[in-house]
Amino acid sequence: EAQVTQNPRYLITVTGKKLTVTCSQNMNHEYMSWYRQDPGLGLRQIYYSMNVEVTDKGDVPEGYKVSRKEKRNFPLILESPSPNQTSLYFCASSRDQLGQVGGYTFGSGTRLTVV
Amino acid sequence: KNEVEQSPQNLTAQEGEFITINCSYSVGISALHWLQQHPGGGIVSLFMLSSGKKKHGRLIATINIQEKHSSLHITASHPRDSAVYICAVAGNQFYFGTGTSLTVIP
User: Fold this and answer.
1) DSSP labels for A24-52?
2) pLDDT reading at A38 higher than 90
3) Interface subset of A 44-83, CB within 8 angstroms of B
4) Which of A77, B25, B47, B68 could form a disulfide with A65 if both were Cys (CB 3.0 to 4.6 A apart)?
5) Residues 6 or more apart from B36 whose CB is under 8 A from it?
6) B42 Cβ under 8 Å from any chain A Cβ
7) Predicted pLDDT at B1
8) Could you give the C-alpha distances from B32 to A57, A82, B1, B41, B72, in angstroms and in order?
């Protein structure tokens, strides 16, 4: 089954403790991206990647890092999480940046709470 | 300043009604997407539009590039259509609307 797998689904952590949210896709998609969703603000793009070793900042990259060492994986790293990073996070992938072929496939989301 | 505005924010309809959700944007775009977010939180891509109109089952999406406006129509609405519908535009950057929460009552 074609899918984007995010882990974990839920995570509660403490301020400053480094964490990684994993994202993996099995569709050989070139484009992958991370979003956060907050009430009243909607979805906002954090980082995206056009291909292996190619990453770029989205709308709200501060406090986050990403890497794209392999085509299928695009982990989101919070080096020193803070409470304002408490949010619902989504990973998505598509064949191209604009999603013109087949749209975007989203992961199930990761609900992160930083206390 | 919101680059993407959706209306209405909330919508309640009786089963069988025709539904329209609107999206207006203020930036230049290459593509516009309609997404559906289920009550459990999962997001599904419904349509990608760069011009004209697309239809998939009971869903119809239209876009008017000159007016910077798109509409999502649902014909013969059903309770399983209850979800949040999100408009997203792709240009130099991605911008998302805050969503329209639809509830369809049996």
Assistant:
1) EESS--SEEEEEEEETTTEEEEEEEEEET
2) yes
3) 44-45, 58-59
4) A77
5) B43, B44, B46, B83, B84, B85, B86
6) yes
7) 62
8) 20, 33, 19, 21, 11
CA distance A77 to B14: 44
Q: Which residues contact B67 (CB under 8 A, 6 or more apart)?
A: none
Place of tokens 């998302």: B96
Q: Does B41 touch chain A (CB under 8 A)?
A: yes
Q: Round to whole Å and give the CA distance between A34 and A92.
A: 6
Burial class (CB in 10 A: 0-12, 13-18, 19+), A57: middle
Tokens 């949010």 appear where? A87
Give mean pLDDT, residues A28-52. 94
Burial degree of A50 (CB within 10 A; 0-12, 13-18, 19+): middle
pLDDT along chain B (106 residues), means of 10: 90 97 93 92 92 95 96 97 95 88 97
